[in-house]
Design goal:
The chain has 181 residues and is mainly alpha-helical. The chain has one domain. Helix content is 67%, strand content 3%. The chain contains six helices and two strands, in the order ααββαααα. Strands 1-2 form a two-stranded antiparallel ribbon. Strand 1 and strand 2 form a beta hairpin. Helix 2 packs parallel to helix 5.
Length: 181
């Protein structure tokens, strides 16, 4: 064997060892696995974020009060949950309608490809819930940055969050009959 042939053979073997054996089906399965995991993590982060916001609820004579950045963060968490629900509801309806169409035509063993645009529209909901989760945490971070240095604003266990009732906050306050448990 010549040294050039041996060198090329070794280079070829190294390339074969470093190649990741993925075909299109494996790539899509990995994509679905990671998007499912991302949805689960997003959901858990939403629950944790709502708990963080709840720590800073202040009870007043007129009800409960919350800083505007936390209210917006809470709204973003709720919107993320709605986008999560919308994604699964949309895909469920889409697959149900396709299954009913195949059943009515008697094509029980037929493999079909769903319209890429219809399936792709579910990504709007997927990325929407991720964006709203990130936005909510940005609003919570804004609350911490703005109130971290203040003496009386950031004490969930001790002092109350001082809420100066603006017109917007007065509209968002719950009646005094609602008590924090």
């Amino acid at each position: 064997m010549s040294s050039g042939y041996r060198r090329n053979l070794l280079r070829y073997k190294r390339q074969q060892k470093t190649k990741v054996g993925l075909n299109l089906d494996k790539i899509w399965n990995t994509y679905y696995e990671f998007t499912g995991l991302t949805s689960n993590v997003s959901r858990q982060l939403n629950f944790a974020g709502i708990a963080i916001v709840w720590l800073f609820v202040e009870e007043t004579d007129n009800g409960i009060c919350l800083k505007m950045s936390l209210i917006i963060g809470l709204l973003c968490f709720v919107l993320s949950f709605w986008f999560d629900l919308a994604q699964y509801l949309y895909l469920s309806i889409l697959h149900f309608l396709e299954a009913r169409k195949l059943e009515k035509s008697g094509q029980y063993d037929t493999q079909v490809l769903l319209n890429d645009r219809l399936i792709g529209f579910a990504n709007v909901f997927f990325f929407g819930k991720i964006i709203f989760t990130l936005a909510a945490y940005c609003w919570i971070a804004t609350f911490f940055v703005m109130h971290l240095g203040a003496d009386n604003d950031l004490h969930p266990a001790g002092k109350k969050v001082s809420c100066q009732a603006s017109k917007v906050q007065q509209q968002l306050q719950l009646p005094s009959k609602v008590k924090r448990q």
